[in-house]
């Protein structure tokens, strides 16, 4: 473990020890506990490769916290989230990166000047651009993208539909208050690593250092229509001198009217993490876009989505599908996703000779989710 990460851990522990006993006489601590459990199956079928099978999956997360407000109006608190890892997931969704791990652990202070977090938590980029309307199956960030033959090219760089970010790396994060609909955020992670959770192993890029994120988010309404937009820029130093630095731009937006919500996310990872001296015929920039629409009426929900991404001279990927959900009771929801994907593999792609140049497949997922 690096000296930088150890220093950030020590600072987080020290701040937590300082804040814990400090509860003004007229203030009381507010405790909260919540959790989510998901289970189900993912069925994949790649006809040309003769590959069809079902794989079970499971995920969970339990979040606890304590918060107190001083007489001066400053809020102090701490949050701990233990679970199976939410690497590459939307902020409210568990993943299956670990059997048990520390997904989040941080302390924070908030007031009229904004909010500061210190520890292992989401960065400014994810907070500003995580806008897609997701049902229980997760659609583009769901478990179906975990399969090796199904994964979009961007999945090896970070979140498959939103580009590369710091994920749950230990960091310091600041966000401004929302003024006239606008909020900005900044975060810094000495390394893209987390204690108690493996956020390095799932991806091909070695863990970067000096991971900076800057982002802005705007919310407003126009009569009965609510809208939101987010923009983020991330930069990190490559782990090795022979690799390109990480630079990612993400743009997201969404509209809500009644039970209808539509959203879009576009990202450009450039040549993040690729060898500097690769041949002209080697892999190029990675970029992608996801469009998604959801309609919810009482306990029922329907999502339609389309995703396209590519790594130049390697893979061009398309996927589209639908998601259905039904809230059986207040704390239990079941979901079904049906997806069709296609890929065009360049001659330089290592899978091109074994699985054909234009593989196509189908995916179905069944999910049951319990929240408390």
UniProtKB/TrEMBL annotation:
Q: Which UniProt keywords apply?
A: Signal
At the highest ranks, the source species' classification is: Bacteria, Pseudomonadati, Pseudomonadota, Alphaproteobacteria, Rhodospirillales
What is the protein name given in its UniProt record? Porin domain-containing protein
According to its UniProt entry, this protein's organism is Nitrospirillum iridis
Q: Which residues form a coiled coil?
A: none
Record-level Gene Ontology MF annotations: porin activity
Q: List, alphabetically, the InterPro entries matched.
A: Gram_neg_porin_domain, Porin_dom_sf
Q: Where is this region: Disordered?
A: 271-290
Q: Does the keyword Zinc apply?
A: no
Q: Does the keyword Signal apply?
A: yes
Q: Where is the signal peptide?
A: 1-27
């Amino acid at each position: 473990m690096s000296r930088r990460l150890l220093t950030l851990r020590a600072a987080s522990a020290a701040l937590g020890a300082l804040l814990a006993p400090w509860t003004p006489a007229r203030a009381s601590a507010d405790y909260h506990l919540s959790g989510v459990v998901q289970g189900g199956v993912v069925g994949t079928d790649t006809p040309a490769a003769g590959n069809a099978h079902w794989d079970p999956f499971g995920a969970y997360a339990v979040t606890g916290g304590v918060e107190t407000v001083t007489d001066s109006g400053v809020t102090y608190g701490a949050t701990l989230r233990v679970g199976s890892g939410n690497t590459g997931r939307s902020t409210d969704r568990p993943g299956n990166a670990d059997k048990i791990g520390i997904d989040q652990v941080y302390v924070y202070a908030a007031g009229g000047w904004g909010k500061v977090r210190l520890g292992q938590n989401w960065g400014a980029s994810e907070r500003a651009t995580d806008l897609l309307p997701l049902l229980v199956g997760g659609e583009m960030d769901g478990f179906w993208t975990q399969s090796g033959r199904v994964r979009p090219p961007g999945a090896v760089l970070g979140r498959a539909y939103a580009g590369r970010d710091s994920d749950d790396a230990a960091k310091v994060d600041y966000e401004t208050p929302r003024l006239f609909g606008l909020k900005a955020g900044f975060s810094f992670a000495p390394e893209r690593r987390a204690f108690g959770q493996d956020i390095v192993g799932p991806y091909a890029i070695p863990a970067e250092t000096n991971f900076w994120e800057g982002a802005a988010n705007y919310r407003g309404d126009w009569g009965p229509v609510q809208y939101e937009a987010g923009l983020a820029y991330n930069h990190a130093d490559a782990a090795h001198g022979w690799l390109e630095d990480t630079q990612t731009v993400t743009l997201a937006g969404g509209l809500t009217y009644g039970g209808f919500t539509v959203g879009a996310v576009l990202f450009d990872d450039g040549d993040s993490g690729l060898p500097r001296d690769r041949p002209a015929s080697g892999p190029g920039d990675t970029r992608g876009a996801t469009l998604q629409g959801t309609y919810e009426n009482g306990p029922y929900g329907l999502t339609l989505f389309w995703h396209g991404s590519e790594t130049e001279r390697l893979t061009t990927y398309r996927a589209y599908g639908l998601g259905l959900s039904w809230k059986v009771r207040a704390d239990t929801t079941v979901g079904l996703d049906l997806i069709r994907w296609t890929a065009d593999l360049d001659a330089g792609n290592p899978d091109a000779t074994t699985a054909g140049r234009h593989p196509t497949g189908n995916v179905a997922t069944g999910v049951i989710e319990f929240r408390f």
